[in-house]
Design goal:
The structure holds 2 protein chains of 2 kinds. Chain A is an alpha+beta fold. Helix content of chain A is 38%, strand content 23%. Chain A contains 8 helices and 9 strands. In chain B, helix 2 packs across helix 3 and helix 3 packs parallel to helix 4. Classes of the chains: A alpha+beta, B alpha/beta. At the A-B interface, helix 3 and helix 6 of A face helix 5, strand 9 and helix 6 of B.
Chain lengths: 292, 199
């Protein structure tokens, strides 16, 4: 029987490798559709290069983007899963191994000295969001988050008086401000409510919902669709050089909020959406769900 | 919209032909330079020590890129060769073009007024490489010819790289004062105001 700890470690390395060379199928399909409907030649050339890049990366095992991102994990940990506080050091070790083997660019830098740790680990890095859930499995979402698209994140602490109008205006403002910077076509995550930190966390989490899966709440699904159309009507297009598709999808998550607050967090995800999802059973066996 | 295949170094005449929206593929040598290369080279120029810059940059293509590299059997190999955000170099790029006479700047995300003016005055163009398409860029690399200023760290060092059919790059700023990014963005701002008024 393989060692539980070794299985988890190698499973995490596999997740990171899969994400470095692939984008999830829904993202690839959305990019393909964007290419088909585009008639602006510059936009078409950009989308063609993107689609070719996905193919070349998958075949040659060259990282999709030279910014191989900040390793970020969203984990739902079953309360009966055999490992708990040991998880962080295990994941850190997996990140070190993956950085050397794939190879990934070392992206963990001390903000005071600018010294690079060299292996993508450091204080609070990898970034791990942990939630305790019933059961004995562990569900892991891994995200290699690029700096360019993280830099165009926004937090608006709106006056609650502004309501839905205020939220919609904030989304449009954030897109105009982002312009070419987040490597569009992007996925836009909008987190509404909670608190300042919660709104931003929900915004990032929202981007994990598949592009072809509308919001389960029909009212919110309608807002997502409306905002997607409005954002694309700005004409920013792929890479901000003009065209029909700036965003591939708009995804909303929300939480209850303080009566005096209306936090709106916005997270932008570049087209190179390097994300993998897997479930580990209590013996450490991994089932990779995304990319398929 | 025209399509060009250019070999570096390029002449001013070649660059003046380029118009925003044109597509360009490159052959020959391109040189990487991001934040620290700009800082060091311009410091040397300010001291009158331009000759200490290890590469003759005249007519060359300067690429905003911090590659992923690995030394295998004493030879540098490139694993990642996509563009980095050019905006960080905005404050110094026009000076860099003036001092070193580079003709092409390659990057992503665009540059602004000062660079656009500098390109018009000294005869240079900005080529947008599709952001994040590192695997395609890497497969256009023939070899690493040389590397300088490695003390700056591998992403910041000056890599001299031979490429073949490097592209597609799009002319996003030409030498006639046109800037596709600012055109697109100013239209988007107008549309945004109309959209917001209707919410």
């Amino acid at each position: 029987m393989p060692d539980l700890r070794e299985s988890i470690k190698s499973g995490i390395v596999t997740m990171m490798r899969e994400a470095a060379f692939n984008v999830p199928r829904d993202v690839k399909e959305a990019l393909q559709r964007a290419y088909e409907i585009e008639d602006n030649p510059v936009a078409k050339a950009n989308l063609e290069a993107i689609l070719r890049n996905i193919e070349v990366s998958g075949k040659t095992k060259l990282p999709m983007c030279q910014d191989t991102g900040t390793p970020t994990f969203f984990i739902e940990l079953g309360e009966d899963f055999p490992l708990k506080s040991e998880l962080r050091p295990l994941i850190e070790e997996a990140v070190r191994i993956a950085t050397g083997e794939i190879p990934l660019r070392p992206n963990a830098v001390d903000p005071w000295t600018y010294k690079n740790s060299g292996d993508n680990t450091g204080r609070y890095v990898p970034i791990i969001h942990l939630e305790l859930v019933p059961g004995s499995e562990m569900k892991v979402i891994y995200l290699a988050k690029g700096g360019g698209s993280e830099n165009t994140s926004k937090l608006y602490m709106l006056s609650p008086v502004l309501g839905l109008k205020g939220i919609k205006r904030a989304v449009i403002d954030a897109m105009v401000d982002a312009g070419p910077k987040p490597c569009p076509p992007i996925v836009v995550g909008v987190g509404v409510g909670g608190s300042a930190d919660m709104a931003l966390k929900l915004a990032k989490k929202a981007t994990f919902r598949r592009l072809d899966e509308p919001n389960p709440d029909p009212k919110l699904a309608e807002i997502e669709q409306e905002m997607l159309e409005k954002i694309n009507s700005l004409g920013l297009g792929p890479m901000g050089l003009g065209g029909k598709t700036y965003a591939l999808g708009v995804k909303i998550e929300w939480a209850h909020k303080h009566p005096a607050s209306l936090p709106v967090g916005i997270n932008t995800q570049c087209w190179a959406f390097r994300r993998s999802e897997a479930v580990f059973d209590s013996n450490g066996n991994m089932k990779l769900l995304v990319p398929p | 919209m025209a399509e060009y295949r250019l070999k570096t170094p390029v002449s001013e005449e070649d660059v003046r032909k380029l118009k925003v929206g044109d597509i360009v593929y490159l052959d020959g040598i391109i040189i990487t330079g991001r934040d620290q290369v700009h800082r060091r080279a311009l410091e040397l120029a300010a001291k009158g020590e331009k000759d200490k810059v290890p590469v003759d940059l005249e007519g060359m293509a300067l690429y905003h890129c911090g590659p992923i590299v690995k030394k295998i059997d004493d030879e540098w190999k490139i694993f990642g060769f996509g563009p980095t955000t050019s905006a960080r170099m905005e404050s110094v790029e026009a000076d860099f073009i003036r001092e070193f006479k580079v003709r092409l700047i390659i990057g992503k995300g665009g540059m602004f007024e000062k660079t656009t003016q500098g390109m018009k005055e000294y005869g240079a163009a900005y080529l947008a490489y599709p952001g994040g398409t590192s695997a395609v860029a890497t497969s256009a690399v023939k070899r690493v010819v040389d590397v300088h200023w490695l003390d700056l760290g591998t992403p910041e060092a000056m890599w001299v790289v031979e490429v073949e059919n490097f592209g597609p790059t799009m002319v996003a700023i030409d030498s006639h004062g046109n800037n596709l990014y600012t055109d697109v963005l100013s239209k988007a701002k107008k549309v945004a105001e109309e959209i917001k008024a209707k919410f």
